[in-house]
Amino acid sequence: MILVVGGAGYIGSHVVKQLYKNGQDVIVFDNFKNGHREFAKWGKCFEGDLNDIHTLNQLFETNQINSVIHFAAYAYVNESVMDPQKYYLNNVMGSLNLLKAMLTHNVKEIVFSSTCATYGNPTYIPITECHIQKPINPYGWSKLMIEQVIKDYHHAYGLQYAILRYFNAAGADIEGEVGEWHEPETHLIPIILQVALEEKDSVQIFGTDYETPDGTCIRDYIHVMDLADAHIKAMNYIKGTQQSEVFNLGTGNGFSVNEVINTARSIIEKPIRVVESQRRPGDPAILIANSNKANNLLKWEPQYSDLRTIISSAWKWQQILSMK
Ligand code: UDP
């Protein structure tokens, strides 16, 4: 059985759906603080918090868990700067507890959600896995710390891992069953869609004076279903090869904030009001992945990550969400 920690969240729920559809035995563990109960509809569900060691041990004692995919984390960069303790207690301590429970119960395979935020300000583009890691916010540090812990446990205890560093997760299940649902929402694409639905007045463009062709930040948007596929391939890779690796997950293509807004306008055909604002602290000008390693070793190729498919699937989902 595969344990998906944080399986009721945005990326986790897409992975759970795909695992379930593949016929895998899957169990979701979530505290439902940011996860959604209605997303935990595939496989088994076990409610609990990673900082509750008793529940965690019960989870492992009452289920035949062979491997773990670990998503559970807080992921708001700004909040992590304002309240780092929240991030270190949850993201770092929670992960340490999970790893302890895994080792105690002899579970030795983990796929861990990491992030391009562990690189900090890139010194070259596209970013490869060996780029220096110098986070510029506590969220990035919390992920980097657990990367290090996992690598140390690999050497000392034989823990097998795949560490996946996502670039900008975006889009939604093309069947519209799950999607991005954050409260509050801070991400560019859902905000654009909320403006199109007249749930918000305007999109703020955070910075128009970056050193990019149109002055707005460039990001590498990767469809959440492609991320889900990468997790499953990474899990199979660990099992098949007994190798532990780090992988970037992106497309290698970057789009500026203006390009994303204009693509959304052309798909949705509704006015999307924008307001030019100050730069958001902690935003590098350009983040683009080199994902050749995942392409080669995992035989992973994004299928849904052209910008139009990303925005169309997110649009379908946002309209469903607006009825909830
Ligand atoms: N962004 C923006 N307005 C918003 C939200 C985001 O201009 O309301 C920009 C942000 O500065 C970044 C890009 O859009 O350059 C993607 O931001 P998002 O928050 O979606 O993801 P992040 O890059 O922070 O993971």
UniProtKB/TrEMBL annotation:
Source species, domain of life: Bacteria
Single GO BP term: galactose catabolic process via UDP-galactose, Leloir pathway
Nucleotide-binding listed as a keyword: no
Pathway, per record: Carbohydrate metabolism; galactose metabolism
Needed co-factor(s): NAD(+)
Family statement drawn from the similarity comment of this UniProt entry: Belongs to the NAD(P)-dependent epimerase/dehydratase family.
EC number(s) reported in the record: 5.1.3.2
Reaction(s) catalysed (UniProt annotation): UDP-alpha-D-glucose = UDP-alpha-D-galactose
Membrane-traversing stretches: none
NCBIfam families the record matches: galE
Class of enzymatic activity (EC top level): isomerase
Keywords annotated in UniProt: Carbohydrate metabolism, Galactose metabolism, Isomerase, NAD
Molecular function GO terms recorded: UDP-glucose 4-epimerase activity
Protein name in UniProt: UDP-glucose 4-epimerase
Source organism (scientific name): Desulfuribacillus stibiiarsenatis
Domain NAD-dependent epimerase/dehydratase intervals: 2-250
One Pfam family hit: Epimerase
InterPro entries: Epimerase_deHydtase, NAD(P)-bd_dom_sf, UDP_G4E
Oligomer status and interactors: Homodimer.
